[in-house]
Amino acid sequence: MPDILYKYLDKRGVDLLSSSRILASCPTKMNDPFEWLPAIRDEASPEEIRRMLKNPRLRALALIDGKKIPNDPKELARTVSRLKNGAKGAAADRRRTIVEYVEKRCRIICLAQCPLNTLMWAHYAKGHDGFVVGFDTAELLRACKGSRLMEVSYSDNRPDFGSAWGEDPTGEMIDEVFRAKSRHWEYEKEYRILRLPELLQEDGGKHYQPIPTSSIRKVIIGSRPSVELERELSDVLARPLFAHIEKLRVKLDPTKYEFVLSAA
């Protein structure tokens, strides 16, 4: 676990400092449309359907003409055939159920391992007119009681939840979905904390995790901040409770495509 993890912010992120809270995002509202969407096939083999029918909960859910699936072998065979033909619709239903669950029950605090990532500054800190906050990882986790820190895993393939009539996902499968992203996002080197909405503060339809100011160790100002951002950060960081924070500024390396840090 890294000792310090970072949050890239635009000027709206000054609220993190002034209100001592960090945004916990709804996965379906984040900038990756694949968030929390495992692979669910639009078809199912007769063998998969027969396995599904051995699961009492799934069997009770699979109603045909308002009746539970019968035990008669011939009728059961006809039921398997009908379920196979209806797999595409069932897969869509299963995806929709996952999305609804995530929207109701899951919020994510997203953090990064590196504070000097050119693309992160461009994408999340308003093209370098923003700033980065460095957190003491252990102290932040103590504020998020009951939550785990998980490193994002990058892959070419989405987590496999099988067919429309697949078995209930295991805890290991849920963990995999929580930390899975495409390799396109690998540059982020992301870590995540999963929170339940009821454990967070709600404000304007968004959810926030209260954080102790002592968990904030660094504030790093971008290479081309606006006058407005400089003023707002200066006013907030002048408060005595932020006296412990290391204040840094990003500068361009004179010869390389790299950033260097200097005292702000």
Task: Describe this protein with a few key phrases.
single chain, about 260 residues, alpha+beta, three-stranded antiparallel sheet, 15 strands, about 25% strand, elongated
Give an overview in words.
By secondary structure, the chain is α+β, with helices and mostly antiparallel strands. It folds into two domains: 4-26 and 108-152 and 189-263; 39-102, no CATH class. Helix content is 32%, strand content 27%. It contains nine helices and 15 strands. It has a five-stranded mixed sheet. A three-stranded antiparallel sheet has the order 2-12-11. The chain is elongated. Mean pLDDT is 89; it is low at 63-67.
Distance N to C terminus: 28 Å
- Spans of 5+ residues with little confidence (pLDDT < 50)? 63-67
Level of helix content? Answer: 25-40%
Radius of gyration, rounded?
24 Å
Q: Domains counted in the coordinates: how many?
A: 2
Order of helices and strands: EHEEHHHHEHEHEEEHEEEEEHEE
Q: How many extended strands?
A: 15
How much of the sequence lies in strands comes to 25-35%
Class from secondary-structure proportions: alpha+beta
